[in-house]
Write a structure and sequence with these properties.
Elements lengths: L7 E5 L6 H11 L3 E3 L2 E3 L13 E3 L2 H9 L3 E8 L2 E6 H9 L3 E5 L2 H11 L3 E7 L3 H11 L4 H15 L7 E4 L3 H17 L1
Parallel strand pairs: 1-7, 1-8, 2-7, 3-4, 8-9
Antiparallel strand pairs: 3-6, 5-6
Helix pairs in contact: 1-7, 5-6
The chain binds adenosine-5'-diphosphate (ADP) and guanosine-5'-monophosphate.
Length: about 190
């Protein structure tokens, strides 16, 4: 019997909007979903695992993979740090009928959507304000003040792409946002 190919669930947002929190919630609360592990050249944070959060590779390895056309999409998301979705990871999971969750930056998300069209649902996670983003990044305490400033500066540019996504998820009250997205994802993967 032929397996029905899986669907792609893309989550993009300015850093600090809550997309990692939302993606983790969906993985924990819906069956049949798999996280797309990206490659990155940024250094590993405390608590992260190679092969689970990212494939952590050097800038040189990353550039070699670019030249071998191994990425479905890739971006230099923040100065000097590359992030990319490996074609081999995605193809294998889709053939197995798995639904794949992506946590990628805004341009990467739109590129994946363009490639997979109706097989993909592109969601933009929107925080209530830039000020809220800054507060969330400060509370998360994973980035230096300088990095937080870089992320905030980029956020304003990224917000201008929100209307290009299939759906804007307003992440103000977390429980409300989680319930809303669970319903939407369930509906999308069942149709
Ligand atoms: P992103 O992946 O978009 O960078 P995270 O999911 O890491 O964002 O969230 C950034 C911080 O904000 C985390 O500390 C997270 O616990 C917190 N957070 C996420 N959603 C909410 C929310 N709705 N209200 C308050 N804090 C939130
Ligand atoms: P972080 O350093 O906080 O893990 O991620 C920084 C940004 O890179 C986030 O917006 C995240 O969604 C994005 N990102 C992670 N993986 C990929 C990827 O494979 N491709 C692209 N384009 N962006 C990614």
């Amino acid at each position: 019997m032929q397996i029905k190919p899986g669907k792609l669930l893309i989550f993009s947002a300015p850093s600090g909007s809550g997309k990692t929190t939302i993606v983790k919630y969906l993985l924990d609360n819906l069956t049949g979903l798999t996280f797309s592990v990206s490659a990155t050249s940024r250094s590993m944070r405390v608590g992260e695992e190679n092969g689970k959060d990212y494939f952590f590779i050097s800038r040189e390895e990353f550039r070699t993979k670019i030249s071998k056309n191994e990425f479905l999409e890739w971006e230099e998301v923040y100065n000097g740090s590359y992030y990319g979705t490996l074609k081999c990871e995605v193809d294998l999971l889709l053939q197995q009928g798995k639904h794949i969750l992506f946590d990628v930056d805004v341009l990467g998300g739109l590129n994946i959507k363009q490639h997979y069209q109706d097989q993909a649902l592109a969601v933009f996670v929107m925080a209530p304000s830039i000020d809220t983003l800054r507060k969330r990044l400060c509370i998360r305490s994973t980035d230096s003040d300088e990095n937080i400033q870089k992320r905030i500066e980029k956020a304003e540019f990224e917000m201008t792409f929100a209307h290009k996504f299939d759906f804007i998820l307003h992440n103000d009250d977390l429980v409300t946002a989680q319930n809303e997205i669970k319903y939407i994802v369930q509906h999308f993967i069942n149709t």
